[in-house]
Specification:
Blueprint: H1 2-24, H2 32-39, H3 43-49, H4 53-80, H5 86-99, H6 103-115, H7 117-141, H8 147-164, H9 176-192
């Protein structure tokens, strides 16, 4: 039990240190020795838990994926059960993306996806799980959507939500609450007008 907890604590520290260093210094500029020092573990412990730095990236992506998927499923459930409207759901999703920390880490990971087929495949695999939830939210917002319009709307929703995390690089100064509300309004207008 203690060994398993120690392993988990080490994993948590390594991933936390990797998030910080990969986001601030970059993936390729971070040496394993720096990562070990930041995480307060040995380089050997890193290699016992992870094959390489790409494996660490995959673990970060996996942890973020699980958290985001749980949030999406909760929001979809809230809309289905009538606790919130589709517009409020889109506003909440937009707010989460607009307020997300770690924009530079996100862009580092996306850059690695361009270089590593394994990272790209894992991100694509996770996106496959997000799409049905976004499709359901689009249908809940406009049940008249035809298949072609629904697929296009899902693609736009996914691209826009992912793109919102890069807001800091665009130098935007609109308050997050206003930006989230306007994003939701635009999503709803798009979905309302998407009927062929």
């Amino acid at each position: 039990m203690i060994a398993a907890q120690h392993k988990q604590d080490g994993r948590t520290r390594i991933l936390s240190a990797a998030r910080h260093l990969f986001g601030s210094r970059g993936f390729h500029l971070t040496a394993m020795s720096e990562l070990a020092s930041e995480a307060q573990v040995s380089v050997g412990q890193i290699y016992r838990l992870f094959k390489n730095k790409y494996d660490i990236i995959l673990a970060i992506v996996g942890d973020d994926h699980a958290e985001w998927l749980a949030q999406l499923e909760r929001i979809r459930s809230d809309v289905r059960d009538g606790r919130i409207s589709p517009a409020k759901a889109f506003e909440e999703l937009a707010r989460q993306e607009l307020a997300a920390d770690g924009e530079t880490l996100t862009f580092e990971i996306l850059a690695e996806a361009g270089r590593s087929p394994e990272v790209a495949a894992k991100i694509a695999e996770f996106c496959v799980e997000f799409r049905p939830i976004l499709r359901d939210l689009a249908c809940l917002a406009n049940p008249r959507l035809q298949q072609r319009d629904l697929e296009a709307a899902t693609e736009v929703l996914q691209a826009c939500l992912f793109g919102l995390s890069g807001r800091m690089f665009a130098g935007c100064d609109v308050h997050i609450d206003i930006a989230a509300a306007e994003t939701a309004r635009l999503f709803m207008a798009m979905l309302d007008n998407a009927v062929s």
